[in-house]
What does this fold into?
Amino acid sequence: MPYVFDFDHSHRRPPMEMKDLLGGKGANLAEMTSVLGLPVPPGFTISTEACRAYMVGGWPAGLDEEVARARRRLERAMGKELGDPVDPLLVSVRSGAKFSMPGMMDTVLNLGLNDQSVEGLAKQTDDERFAYDSYRRFVAMYGRIVLGIPGEEFDSLFEAAKELAGTSSDAKVPTELLRYLVDSYQQIVERHTGEPFPQDPAAQLRGAIEAVFRSWNGPRAVAYREREHIPHSLGTAVNVQAMVFGNRDDQSGTGVGFTRDPATGEQGVYGDFLVNAQGEDVVAGIRNTEPLSALRRSFPAVYRELMDVFERLERHYRDMCDTEFTIEQGKLWMLQTRVGKRTGRAALKMAVDMTREPKIRLTRAEAVSRITEDHLAAVLHPQFAGKGHTVIAKGLAASPGAAVGRAYFTADDAEAAARRGEPVVLVRTETSPEDVHGMLAAEGVLTARGGLVSHAAVVARGWGKPAVVGAESLRIGRHSFTAGGTTVAEGDWISIDGSSGEVVAGKVELTPAAPPPEFDIVLGWADEIRKGALGVRANADTGEDAANARRLGAEGIGLCRTEHMFLGEDRLPVVRRMILAEGEEEERAALEELRAVQREDFAAILEAMDGLPVTVRLLDPPLHEFLPSVEELVVKEATTGLTDEERTLYEAAKSWREANPMLGTRGVRLGVIKPGLYAMQVRALMEAARDRLAAGGHPVVEIMIPLTVSREELALARQWVEEAIAEVAGAEEATSDGRKGQRRARGSRNGAAIEVKIGTMIETPRAALRAEEIAEVADFFSFGTNDLTQMTFGFSRDDVEGRMMSAYLDKGLLARNPFETVDPDGVGELVRLATARGRSTRPDLKVGVCGEHGGDPASILVFYDAGLDYVSCSPYRVPVARLAAAQAVVAAGGGAPQERGRGRAPSRAQRSGSRPVSRARTSRGPAPRSAKGLGASRPVKAVKRGSGAHNGTRGSRH
Ligand code: PEP
Ligand code: MG
It folds into this structure.
């Protein structure tokens, strides 16, 4: 397979589907050239395969010859040659990976200029100033990017030249000074490299291509890929393209345009434009841009042509596209297009609108698949509460949501402050890829310069981080800024609203955002798609949480951690009395007290979830967690001394203390040594259910035993549970419904039945392996993937994330943090295997997951693939889980019910979108949905998690 493909190469598949090989930019340039016939400057793409070969073994054999041949073809097509002293061709060399990485890798422009060809360019264009300005830019860019010379060396000379010329405008530096700058820049190069600036275009080209390959592993690119979960192994393609010039004269210009508004999703074109400028000037936000509408007046014919191109692009890509274009002396050239990034609000609106537009006819399955976790998070972002804040500056509303934090003025300072635990707003004149780490650490970003497509705006929007850009009235110094007569110093609180562009000094109170109407429409479609395929429940421990979860679409509770009910101020002393009890009598009295309060808690939860299943887990954590810390009491004993009560607690805490509490007396093991404990909890639950029934409700109860390792252990626990159920049912019979293990407890007042299922968590590798026999005594399984991950890896869930996880991720020893995204090969394999083994004993075994992974989209793919019936996650993740569950169904070939059998697809994704859910379901049952799990599914990246959303497992547990 060749490494180099011309843009008009005739591929067997549509080039836009070949991003793996051509990279996103190369694939779309080829699509625009060879399929759409748009005015694209000719060029060629060096494939990602060449980059991968380079990363393994250096410059690939044969690549020089292929590049030389492609160069000759390009020169023939253009009727010009690189380096020609009379009429030179110039090219740009740009990176272009499979997934867009805005500004993360390198670009070299104006390549092909040398001491001779610059004169040819001057003659051909009759513009010496333009030729020397281009050469100056090229030498500086090449010096910085290819030869690794610090950019400031060139920049400071240029600033000095401007000062000498008495101008602040780049465009006003006179030709003699530009000639002088070229000369000085070349001296800088020679001083740094010991060699003269390369004059041979072939050497220049090879240097630039290699620099792009190298930039794939530059720190900026690596950090970005880690944040976006893009595999490091993909490599980048390199695009070599004939240059066209937006900076030729006032009949030239350059801009970026979107086919609809990327902030709101409204129809109509949108973008920024600069007369007499090169593309980088727009994106860098160095000069203030004009809106695209201004083009209509200054370049009416070009404007009409551009509108026609936008229309064709939308129709062809069936999505909003963003573009870069250049006008060279009145002629329009399309330099780039791609499906555009958008805010959450815009994504939802566009997805819904496009299902209704005849030219696009998106299916509901496609619409659902276009929404990401970040989009949902963005519309759920908080907003400023109330009105009337004193706005000290106003900028562009670049990325929605409000943020409050302390102002820091460099990315390093912002990162350091965030590490100290401070919420941070990063304030910069403008941002560049060098600032990415500070942006990542910040709650929000504020810049004084740049448009809605500037670096700050694009990156923040992509991450769903609030941002206000181009707040021009800001005067930013090293450690403070002033605006509207107010000075904000480093560390002072500020608030920004990325939906309105407002900047406020001090802390503004925030309220949660109200999602747009399309939020419910899209999630409604997601529910239709996943109906009967994958349920979504919530982990909730209080009536309030349960009600909130239900509002967010939860279809029941998958995990009620009852220990949370033990930690209330009024309950802890009772729990301690139970632990410290000396005799049975004392213990029973304490348990009775606990029963009364637990009953109220359960009543509130059952009411909030009336008619939906509520899975209550019996007590799980080691009992010492309810006692004071030994360390604190040791200190107290040595200093102020202990009271009698404290001394008793101290002795108890010492005696319950274990070396490995997570592997000690917890879960069902607690029940074994304190059997009255579980019986008490079951009685409280069943009494609450009986009361609910009596009140006309429909309690659906599932009782879950944690941390079991064997059938015998679960059978014993089940016996306690059944006895307690029978006890509550009183004189009335507690009958089996005929199927092994299903219990019906009769409510005592109206005789109606409460269906109770008794099941277990699968949290240990042994339980997973012995699932076949454990299923003999379980009505359901719920995978506790937090513990299952801990025990499968032998990674302490309370320790490894802080200390070693980042090293493991940096060194590539782990692809993802397994506490965040389930390990598909190890833990995932145990999930698949246990599900299959459990169902081989009991085909109707209900199986879910309630570890943190239940709310993680990439993990949800694994769980759907394993044949699970539902996932359960924290209430605020329920919308994300509903979406991800539907996407998993679509990825496996399911679609919305009304779309079943409705095929209309030129693309593979569309064809699969038309397959009925029921077909996907036929592969279910004991066997996994696909042998390879994740491997068969759509890229995990499409639904990756938002930054900072995950707080480890410990916080969620206790
Ligand atoms: C689990 O282990 O995944 C689980 C849900 O239980 P906990 O986090 O409470 O240990
Ligand atoms: Mg657990």
Remarks:
- Confidence is low (pLDDT under 50) at residues 731-751, 900-958.
- The pocket of phosphoenolpyruvate (ligand 1) is lined by residues 559, 561, 620, 763, 784-787, 850-851, 953, 957 (CB under 6 Å).
